[in-house]
């Protein structure tokens, strides 16, 4: 258990540092240049991941709240609500990233081509809708979470060191689980469809380039590199998300949270926010060139 908690601290530190660096880069791009719709989505996703690290569990926020002398009940409701909202926003922005990249690389003869020139406008509208949806969607859980007490502890399900879920009606529990599952299945389904579409486009493009003997141009294509990065992130997200979902859903249905399982779930939940910025930094030529320029100036 000690080693798992140490791993969580290392993971959180690495994740926050990588996301902070990436957020600074995207802010620099958005303020200093003409940002692409994908930059706006990635910037928001990075901010969401930072918030996830600060609210998911007892790793970073406990000492902050304790130093402010805030009541445990308010602390639990606030952090749990923000965590659920950010978790929902994470899957929504990943889905949005996948959809917009599919539109970006779609051939001019396809039905999606007419949306290419309006992506920035659609991005702002999509941000408004997904934030509104997730802020309202997770609000019902505020009434069922609070500070953990030793009184009637058999009726409470511990979700963090200091917070627990209170007993709820089987119908309400089933309804919340059904609605949440429906949302997740729909969004993951959209991700898989758009990912399959992008794989088909890349396969056709590669076959055409081989036929034209211009495989070097294909390898150097920024669109292909960006698409491959997003495909990698989507696949990793789907795997990690459903492992996390299975653990949490099983625990809610059985109304039982084991401390070791809870720690493993936190590690799984933080895996995607940790890996994403590292993959984006290593695959974005703009960041690599910026780092090279900074290194050359330092020398």
Mean pLDDT: 79
Oligomer state of the chains in this structure: single chain
Helix content: over 70%
CATH topology: Rhopdopsin 7-helix transmembrane proteins
The sequence of SSEs as H and E is HHHHHEEEHHHHH
Q: How many domains comprise the coordinates?
A: 1
Total count of strands: 3
Give a short account of the largest sheet.
3 strands, antiparallel
Structural class: mainly alpha
Please state the overall shape, judged from the principal axes of the Cα atoms.
globular
Widest sheet: strand order? 1-3-2
The CATH homologous superfamily is named Rhodopsin 7-helix transmembrane proteins
CATH architecture: Up-down Bundle
Give your account of this protein's structure:
With 299 residues, the chain is mainly α. It has one domain (1-298): Rhodopsin 7-helix transmembrane proteins (Rhopdopsin 7-helix transmembrane proteins, Up-down Bundle). It contains ten helices and three strands. It has helices at residues 2-32, 37-55, 61-67, 72-105, 119-137, 170-211, 215-219, 222-254, 259-283, 285-298; strands at residues 145-147, 157-158, 163-165. The protein has a three-stranded antiparallel sheet with strand order 1-3-2, covered by helices on one side. Helix 1 (2-32) runs antiparallel to helix 2, helix 1 (2-32) runs parallel beside helix 9 (259-283) and helix 6 (170-211) packs antiparallel against helix 8. The longest helix has 42 residues, at 170-211. It is globular. It starts with a helix and ends with a helix. The relative contact order is 0.13. Mean pLDDT is 79; it is low at 214-220. This is Vomeronasal type-1 receptor. It holds the Pfam family V1R. GO terms for molecular function: pheromone binding; pheromone receptor activity.
